[in-house]
């Protein structure tokens, strides 16, 4: 004859029993990890001596505020740029082919050594001497090396660039398509895929540079939003 | 038969299947183009443009381009890549990549992965905000500044869930997703089904449970977030390093976020999904395309209704009654007490003085053990489950006519039916995900929908034809429609000849069901009846869905039989898209009966009276099993009143609220000598118990459920049981062993193996075959072959033929004239039944805090009732007090009282013990009351933030044409063509 009831008396946990149970569990844990704990205590003791524990304790206690301060300060400083540059340099190192660079480096070393040895003996430099030097096989060899380097620098490398925004043209398709855009003629030569008439490019350099600089500026302003 | 044809892909010949898009063909190959708006469950949306390829020299979106014979497809050219990059760059203009501090960075962010795949190192279209704030409610949030406008959420809302709340306003300067007419989420028609956050490819639409929780750095103070994002962006030298860093961080998350597959524990649709947890904390529910019943769909309960698992109110220790109070106890003491009381009763009164009630919330394995405990250990067949309260009549109707009591096919069959008839089923609220398939098929594929119901609920409102037969008169109109079809010669003669018995006797029994008679009894017009008959005749396939509006009547089994008769006569069995679909109410109401929690049947519906079957079980269990069928729930209550039943062990069922004529049930409880109740909460039924045992919900155990499609699905343990609670199968095992059984189950898979070995219907079911999202639909042969379409060659009845079963109409209960209002009752979308699980969700409770009574505008005017008026309803069996809502969902003198209450609004104080004559299922739907106004004015029981006050905006999909028509849009393919042409 059980009448409905909602009364429930919760079980009272004897604090002593609970405490004893807890202590027993801890004991087992300590014994099981005796060696590990010894090492940890050694480390922690040293950290305590050097105030590290206190610092960590305080930092954690104020972590939200500290993080906000740090990230706000970092955001406003040049630090991100430095980190970025550091990472870019690191990436650049990966692009350099040391095997090919070695002979060039040796040649440059040799050039620097000669330059250091060269003493101006108070005699006026004569065109004859210069022309005579052109006959010198070492000078010819040096000029050939320099010419090869210039040629190599002129090669198309856009696709390999990681620093260069790869879809620059997307921002303003007109730049590339040469459509109705008002500055299309002046922009077109800037397309580095075009490999003829470099001298025309040089002649029109100013015309190119002005709108390009302005474009770049605009893009930069916008991406910084 | 699939047709294959040849085409050219990047210069080489390839075979393709007809009717696939270019993207379909390339999916999961090394040549798959990037694709962000495409989702397999949503199809081509054409908003992102990233999947551009060249077909026959033209740039096209591969998601929406059908592959044809002889096509020349190019996917790898520099120009194609350029077009894809243009599209991707535009997307990045809408989405800021701060992956490492993003909660969505869990390895599945599609933007992140596409950026990586395309090896994009920089973004030139600058990210721009959309000048609109973050939208949020208790369940999810939308950050417009992260939204790439792919439109997946809109497509899911408009055409998959078909709630029609979300749109993208393409007319805005900066388009974004809006709710209804650009209002807040809570003020809109949003039902919080979660489709949008599930399909979002990034963090724009995200579950709030994830916010600040998923990542190691995402929980930082709000004011640190922006500087942190800026630093991340300034430091990075291209996205490659950012991607690497965030990938490492995502990998670290794998260590502490568990993703465990489970099956929903609410309705019978059987949605399965992954639960993301961090310890006991539930971060989100993640449905996946491979989920067989639901795909990516969920309703608010399945997606967001899991707070109950960690509720403080959970039972954590056994309770033992001492006088008029309970005290917490240890398991040993509780089990000692149960053992002594069970033993004493067995000795004193014999096994039939004990009874067992299993649960449709528990697993199949637990139902199996409960009936094994009753039959094999105690020695009684007094075992039943809650399908007695709902679905037994439907099962009876199908046993009579087609032999198996289960859905004829799968949810996909319902979706592909040409005609769906829904009778007495509030499908959109009671089986929300299943309803989405009907709504979608109707909206997109021309499916015709006929609804017969008292209320104009959502599906009725959407129906092509909505009819309102008088309460309890469905058998009459169904029979009249059947007769009309036969009279017209529209019946399927060949089908009847080859597959059906007793045709002539049945045809003769229909004589009285003329259109005139039906019209008089049901109140339907002859035109409506003819229209239904004609629709069935014209449709190539008809599926009939029904639920409690049919079964919970005095003639519930007969009406279910009439439905099946109509389907047989019209040949709507044995083919895809057709058949009978009694929509099962609970997650495992099908499985509870399948696994033998019935007084007359073993697992697999084998009769206990069958000597051969009984001998098989006796041999396996090593015990003797009684021959005589036991008592069902309804009979148990009477037996307690008669003094024959003294001990009841009930699990996972708040029978003290859900049974009809509650006052009668409660007084029976008071007469029990010993009452054991096993639950996860202290339910109304617990109040009458002598011992309450703390059980574990689905997330804390392994097991299987069977959904409405007869589909077995596995649930995996997500977390350990809370406190001292235990999974039901362990508790039953301990009780059985106290009673002398020697059970040694170490895992539910062993229980399933035993059940399968004794049950031909699911002989081939095993945990190995149900790994992950794998599923099986019974019957399952020993070799693992399952049966999605229940009847393929024959019916499991004598001669392999179905039979037509003549039925007579049972008039509904008649009440004295003072009881002048009819009370309909049923479910709500957002609460499950009495709400003991869903009220634990603050978000759900804020939107729907209490029960309410729906009153028609006519009645409201007549009785001076408005929103918030408090009334008392009185039937001959009891009374309830409840506040009103005036709505045109109900008509005339018909009221609707949802069952989401365990207080003074509980419907079952009004219902009677009157029941279906064949199954004893209570006739819950036959209630009439008188109404008196207690307080004319009061607070509305339904806050304005409830979705029912919203203002849906139906449209097809995301309307990408409006995007394409914008002046600032140029198709990337055109752009590339122009550039290259000018070069």
From TrEMBL, chain A:
The keyword Transmembrane applies. Residues 178-193 have a biased composition (Polar residues). Residues 157-193 are annotated as: Disordered. The chain crosses the membrane at residues 196-214. Residues 157-174 have a biased composition (Basic and acidic residues). Keywords: Membrane, Transmembrane, Transmembrane helix. This is DUF1641 domain-containing protein. It comes from Salinicoccus cyprini. The lineage of its organism: Bacteria, Bacillati, Bacillota, Bacilli, Bacillales.
Automatic annotation (TrEMBL), chain B:
Residues 257-313 form the 4Fe-4S Mo/W bis-MGD-type domain. It catalyses: formate + NAD(+) = CO2 + NADH. Signal peptide: none annotated. GO terms for cellular component: membrane. Transmembrane segments: none annotated. Keywords: 2Fe-2S, 4Fe-4S, Iron, Iron-sulfur, Metal-binding, Molybdenum, Oxidoreductase, Repeat. One of its GO terms (molecular function) is formate dehydrogenase (NAD+) activity. It holds the Pfam family Molydop_binding. This is formate dehydrogenase. Its EC number is 1.17.1.9. Residues 79-119 form the 4Fe-4S His(Cys)3-ligated-type domain. InterPro entries: 2Fe-2S_ferredoxin-like_sf, 4Fe4S_Fe-S-bd, 4Fe4S_Fe_S_CS, Asp_de-COase-like_dom_sf, Formate_Dh-H_N, Formate_DH_asu, MoPterin_dinucl-bd_dom, Mopterin_OxRdtase. Its cofactor is Mo-bis(molybdopterin guanine dinucleotide); [2Fe-2S] cluster; [4Fe-4S] cluster. It comes from the Bacteria. It is an enzyme of class 1 (oxidoreductase). Residues 138-157, 181-211 form the 4Fe-4S ferredoxin-type domain. The keyword Transmembrane helix does not apply. In the C-terminal section; belongs to the prokaryotic molybdopterin-containing oxidoreductase family. One of its GO terms (biological process) is respiratory electron transport chain.
